[in-house]
C-alpha cells in the first residue's frame, strides 16, 4: 500500500508517531500476520510487542488447547502466537515470542487523519483475505 513505512520492532519508539493509523505485521519470509489500527500507533504497536502470554485468560470451563477458549484483552497477536508453531521459537514463552517478533518480523505502518479512516483501510485489508490472524479466529 502506498505511504507505508517499514520498520523492525526495535524501532517502534524511535520511528512510530503517536498518531492514528493502520499497521501490518509481517514475517520476514513474506507471510502477512496481522493488520490493525490504533488511535496512537506507537502505543498500540508497543502493546503488541510487550504483551504477555501470562495475561491470556481461559474462559470458565475452557481448555488451554482450544483457541476459542482463550482470550486476550491486551493483544490478539499474543493469543495467536501462543497457538502458532514456528521452527526455532517457543511462542508459548515470553522470550520466544519476543525473539520471534524481533528476529523474524517487521511492521508496515501508515498514519491517517482519524481512527475512522484507519478502520476503513483495515476493513479493506481484512477482506482481501491475505492476513493469517484476523480478529478472533478459530486457530493460528
Give short descriptive properties of this protein.
single chain, alpha+beta, GIY-YIG endonuclease, four-stranded antiparallel beta sheet
What would you say this structure looks like, in words?
The chain is an alpha+beta fold and 140 residues long. It has one domain: GIY-YIG endonuclease. The chain has helices at residues 12-15, 41-50, 76-83, 94-104, 115-127, and strands at residues 5-7, 21-27, 32-38, 57-58, 70-71, 105-111. It has a 4-stranded antiparallel sheet with strand order 1-6-2-3. It starts with a strand and ends in a 13-residue tail after the last helix. The relative contact order is 0.25. Residues 135-140 have low confidence and may be disordered.
Short recap of the structure:
By secondary structure, the protein is α+β, with helices and mostly antiparallel strands.
Indicate the topology.
Layout lengths: L4 E3 L4 H4 L5 E7 L4 E7 L2 H10 L6 E2 L11 E2 L4 H8 L10 H11 E7 L3 H13 L13
Antiparallel strand pairs: 1-6, 2-3, 2-6, 4-5
Please count the helical segments.
5
The CATH topology, please?
GIY-YIG endonuclease
Give the distance, in angstroms, between the N- and C-terminal Cα atoms.
25 Å
Outline? globular
Residue windows where pLDDT falls under 50 for at least 5 positions: 135-140
> What number is the mean pLDDT?
86
Reading off the top of the CATH hierarchy, the class is best stated as Alpha Beta
CATH superfamily: GIY-YIG endonuclease
Largest sheet: 4 strands, antiparallel
Amino acid at each position: 500500500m502506498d505511504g507505508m513505512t517499514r520498520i523492525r520492532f526495535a524501532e517502534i519508539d524511535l520511528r512510530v508517531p503517536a498518531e492514528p493509523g493502520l499497521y501490518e505485521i509481517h514475517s520476514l519470509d513474506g507471510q502477512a500476520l496481522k493488520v490493525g489500527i490504533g488511535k496512537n500507533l506507537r502505543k498500540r504497536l508497543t502493546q503488541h510487542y510487550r504483551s504477555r502470554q501470562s495475561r491470556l485468560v481461559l474462559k470458565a470451563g475452557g481448555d488451554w488447547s482450544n483457541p476459542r477458549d482463550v482470550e486476550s484483552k491486551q493483544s490478539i497477536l499474543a493469543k495467536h502466537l501462543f497457538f502458532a508453531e514456528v521452527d526455532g521459537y517457543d511462542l508459548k514463552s515470553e522470550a520466544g515470542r519476543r525473539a520471534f517478533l524481533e528476529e523474524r518480523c517487521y511492521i508496515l505502518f501508515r498514519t491517517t487523519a482519524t481512527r475512522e479512516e484507519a478502520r476503513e483501510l483495515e476493513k479493506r485489508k481484512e477482506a482481501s483475505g491475505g492476513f493469517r490472524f484476523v480478529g478472533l479466529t478459530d486457530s493460528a
